Structure formats: C-alpha cells, structure tokens
Amino acid sequence: MSKRAATSFVNSVWSSFHIRSGLEPTLLSTLKLKNVEPGKVNFELLIEKMHTNRLGILHGGTIASMVDLGGSLAVASKGLFSTGVSTDLNVTYLSSGGKVGHVIRGEATCDKFGKTLAYTTVLFRNEDDQLVARGSHTKYVKIAFTEPGNILEELSPELNNDTSRRATGL
C-alpha cells in the first residue's frame, strides 16, 4: 500500500472510531494523526485536564487508551478496516508524559501481522523528545478479514496467497 493510500485509509478508520465508538472520541478528542505509512502511524495528543490524574500529570489510563488505539491504527495501516479485538495490552511508564497544555507524541508500529494475530508496539515521547512510555498491543485479527471495508489486496503477499488458497479450497 502506498503512503497516500495508507493515510487515506487510516483516516477513514479513525473517522469510524469517532462515529461508532464512545471512548475514543470522548477521551481522545484532541488526538491528531501526523504521519501514516504502511505499518506505522504517528500521532500526538494535546493534554487537557480530562487526560490527567490527581497529581496534574498525564494519567496512565490515557496512555493505555492510546496504546489500544495506536495499535489498532497501525493494524489498519496494513489494510484492515475492522482491526480485530485485543488479546493483550501492556504499558511500561518511564516518566511523566506531561501536564495540561503539553503535547505527547506516539509512534505505533505493526511489528508482525499474521493470519490470526497482529503484534504492535507504541512508543511515547514528550515535548523534549524523551521516551516516557512504551506499550505493546496484541490483536486477534482472524475475524477481521471478513470486513467488507478491508483493502485485502494491499495485505502482504503471504496473506493474500493464503486467503486465495482458502477461497479456492486449496
């Protein structure tokens, strides 16, 4: 998939989150996609009060939600409109992500994409470009291959060949 096609496709998936989901459009309303290419999505979040804990710093739950969303969008950048369901999500917090008015940047990468599972990593950096958190997110994607909004022809050749074999009974 070209960078342009990946950008357009991921933007349409992000729009569907705004329309169909309750959490992401509420909690992550200030999240902006900055760069998209096949297998990688860069985004940033302007931190507002609702993103912070009682200490006034970015809440770990906000970061965990961005690991979930970022991993899903990294999977989408490979051609899946329905990005599957989470089977595992982990976050390691290294330092404060910032305060109200600061921006935190995320880079989500689809590390491995198979017929059943997709594995993603999300790294978070503060305004000083310091690594503040890292997350991993595993998605069960087997059922997502039936979504009519997918761009299956854009998926890796191994997946296309396997899908073709299943469709023809080989």
From TrEMBL:
Residues 56-133 form the Thioesterase domain. One of its GO terms (molecular function) is fatty acyl-CoA hydrolase activity. Belongs to the thioesterase PaaI family. This is HotDog domain-containing protein.
